[in-house]
Amino acid sequence: GIRDRDVTGVQTCALPICIYDTQDGRQLVLAGQEPKFIERVLGALGRADLVPLCTRGPGPHQAPVVELLAAFFAARPRQESLDWLEKLDVCFAPVNTLLEATHDPNVDARGLLLRDATGRAHLAPAIRFADEPARPDLREPTLGEHTDEILAGLE
Questions:
Q1: What is the CA radius of gyration of the chain?
Q2: Burial of 28 (0-12, 13-18, 19+ CB in 10 A)
Q3: How far is Cα 100 from Cα 86, in angstroms, rounded to an integer?
Q4: pTM
C-alpha cells in the first residue's frame, strides 16, 4: 500500500515521493522528484512510458504509477527493496522505528543522542544555537526533590 493519503483516501504525495508498505509489514520512503530519479526507477521496472505522468506534477493522473510502485514494494521484503533501490542511485530510505533510528550512523554523526552518567541515551535538543548551546540536565530528580517547590506553587 501507500501511506500518503488524506482522510478521504486521495493521494497527497508528489510521486515518487511516497511512503510504501513492504511485504514484511515495514515501510520505505522513495524520494527525488528530479526526472533522473524517476527515469531510473521506472526504467528499471520496464515502465519508462510512465515517466511523463510523474513530470507533470502530482495528481490523479499518477494513479498508474502509484499502483505500480505500491504493488512492487508490497511484493518484496523491505531489505530486498532497499538493496534494489541502492543499485539505482536514487533517493530513498527505510522508515525506521525509534530504536532503529537511534542506531543510524547519521544520528551519531549529528550528535542527536546524549548519554547520561549511567550511559542511558536521551534525545538531544532539536534546536541548537551556536552561541547558546542547550545543556539539558539528564539527571532524574531524587524522590521528593521538588515537592516543596511544587506545593508552594499550589498555595
A1: 22
A2: buried
A3: 19
A4: 0.72
Contacts for 45 with CB less than 8 Å, ≥ 6 apart: 68, 72
For residue 140, give the C-alpha cell. Answer: 532524574
The residue written with cell numbers 490523479 in the block is 60
Query: What is the grid cell recorded at 138?
Result: 539528564
For each successive 10 residues of the chain (155 residues), what is the average pLDDT? 48 67 95 85 95 85 89 97 95 93 90 90 86 84 92 87
- 122 near 136, Cβ under 8 Å? yes
H or E, element range at 92: strand 91-94
Q: Which of 92, 90, 19, 16 is nearest to 57 (CA)?
A: 16
Contact (CB, 8 A) for 19 and 73: no
